[in-house]
Amino acid sequence: MSQSRRMMIGLSAALLVTGLMVPPVAAQELKEIRIGFQKAGLFPAVKQRATLEKVFKEKGIGVRWVEFQFGPPILEAINTGNVDFGYAGDAPPIFAQAARANLVYIAAIPSRGYNQGIVVPENSPIKTLADLKGKKVGFGKGSSAHNTTVAALEKAGLTYADITPVYLGPADAVAAFAGGNIDAWSIWDPYLALAEGKQARVIAFSKDVQDSISFFLANKDFTTRHPDIVALFNKTFADEGKWAEANRAEVATRLQEATGVDKAATTRAVERSNYTVVPITDQIVATQQQTADRFFKLGLIPKAVDVREIVWKWTPGS
After folding, report:
1. 259 Cβ neighbours under 8 A, 6+ residues apart
2. CB 37 within 8 A of CB 98
3. pLDDT higher than 70, residue 1
4. Is the omega angle on the peptide bond into residue 24 within 30 degrees of 0, that is, cis?
5. Does the structure show a pLDDT above 70 at 18?
6. Which residues touch 215 (CB under 8 Å, ≥6 apart)?
7. CA separation for the pair 227, 237 (Å, rounded)
8. Structure pTM?
């Protein structure tokens, strides 16, 4: 059994244990959409504003939000049909596609490159990316932070074998970083902003090593059955993205209400975020393909993938 397949099975088991598995939507009628979300990005603010609930209520469709710690478990839930939509960084859908997950890219939010980075303790002797050689670096396996780490090593002329990767979800990584059990931590907002607020030092933002893009994804079968719902989902989030770009102070307030994350850290994260939702362009596909090729070259995914094969075409206004 491949490493990625074992990871998918393990995530399925974890979802069952934590009670996050919910019954698939019946093919014949749609009464509810299920959305996987995490503390990062625009989703918590949209949830707090109940915008989707208002839009889909007109169609007699309810909305259920299911919270996850980070991207890979969200995509496993999409794959198994236990949620219909989700949001993740660049690496999770690549690992999922390599494991033949039943999902598609439906839209994207290109990053300004400041919402993810690699941090070290303030008094750490690590000053540059090259200083990571021989060090323990924590990040979520298959997460966007995994990609940032790999890209950072390439930038510094190091190999993956030059570090000791320590695979940790955000909650476990917080404790490991605070306790000195890892030398560096590759992470995204709001955890990045929280770490900065506690005097952690950023040695590189994602913009310094790669083009960062986050994605909206959906279950492939759901998308085939309900393309109008997927288009409406995208349009609603695109409208919410325009609102967020123009109302950052309110976004920070909504996110703080939704997540309970420190207001100063939330504000820092919001101020450096991009919220513009766009279709999956040829350039975005090319950037994502570079990431996929990087993971395959390192042997981190079991086979080469063609990103374009799982892109759902969305035309704004449709």
Report:
1. 39, 44, 190, 266
2. no
3. no
4. no
5. no
6. 87, 88, 89, 90, 93, 105, 106, 107, 108, 109, 280
7. 15
8. 0.86
